[in-house]
Amino acid sequence: MPCYRCGARQVDPVRGPSLWKRGVQAGAQVLVCPECQHGPEWLAELEHCARCGSEQLARVLGETVCRSCGRPGPGLVTEPQPTAELPEQRAGGVSGAVGLSAEVAEALDRIFHRK
């Protein structure tokens, strides 16, 4: 799964915990790369728990759960604050699946010397 802000792909971490952060945006779980975590605006873009205000939400079996207070179920999240347009929105909104398909096709072309 790529970073939802810049589209960077996560690679296997060197030993230790991953520097990538998880969150929920528009009802879907997203990842945020370490580069996009600079500044507070990325936190405002994520949904927050209606009970405790935490942005530490996770999607588990189709349900959103707060990892801070443990509250599951409907009515969990508050709407994110409006922010500036993200890079992928300015570029025409290419979805992660389409981008991944293009990357795989390019890799296969390189491996099999198709181009």
Instruction: For the record, give the distance between the C-alpha atoms at the N and C termini, rounded to a whole number.
Output: 27 Å
Count the DSSP helices: 3
Inertia-based shape: elongated
| Range of strand content | 15-25%
Structural class determined from secondary elements: alpha+beta
Write down the secondary-structure element order: EEHEEEEHH
Oligomer: single chain
CA-based gyration radius: 16 Å
Count all strands and give the number: 6
**Main β-sheet: number of strands, strand sense, barrel status?**
2 strands, antiparallel
The helix content, as a percent range, equals: 10-25%
Record the strand order, biggest sheet. Answer: 1-2
Uncertain regions spanning at least 5 consecutive residues: 89-94
Average pLDDT over all residues: 77
Features:
elongated, 115 residues, two-stranded antiparallel ribbon, alpha+beta
Brief characterization of the structure:
The protein is an alpha+beta fold and 115 residues long. It has helices at residues 41-45, 87-90, 96-111, and strands at residues 21-25, 28-32, 48-49, 57-60, 63-66, 77-78.
